[in-house]
Specification:
alpha+beta; Butyryl-CoA Dehydrogenase, subunit A, domain 3; transmembrane helix; 216 residues; structural molecule activity; PMP22/EMP/MP20/Claudin; 4 helices; cell junction; 56% helix
Length: 216
Amino acid sequence: MVFLTPKIMQRTALFVTFGGFVTSLMTMFIPFWKTMNSDLNEMENWFSGLFHMCLYTEEVGIQCKAYESILALPMDLQISRVLMSVSIGTGAFAIVTAFLGLEGVEIFQPGLKRGLLIFSGVLTWISGLTTLAPISIVAYTTVVEFWDEGFPDVMPRWEYGEAMFSGWFGGFALVIGGTLFFIAVCMGDFDQNIQTVPGSPLPKQRTQNYLKTEVL
């Protein structure tokens, strides 16, 4: 009994892609890309995301405020907004096209389904790379600013937030999901070639046997 078939591989790729897409979507909107805690006032924690800046205090709790101007944002956040938007758009489109190309979804012809799976794999790769790129850009600028000797030692510095790690996880999951789509297509092509090779063992058709009787 074969457990790893093209059908199972297609569904595994779709599951991994959907998980990476949801993780990237959450990463885009949660305001925990960077965090900062002041040594002078340990009761305050600052959080920064792509769309909001938040302040947490024990007395009030967490308070968030949207950025007033896009042009006033640092260049790394502006680029990250664009790339994450591309990632979410391509990821959603990849999931829809992958579902239509699944084996068992009787909407299109097999040849068109193969093209849809390849297209989904390419879109998923683009979605994964455009998730990893902004996370890596913000991570690089955070490290550079953290070790900048031009700032006084008593001045608080931004550090990595939880969204950075969830973004890396979602980006790698999307890249893996796109790779699995290509593997599923290759597995389907291999099975198709085996069936078309002359002399290959093909399933035998069942023949119905009849019992010959004579009337005395």
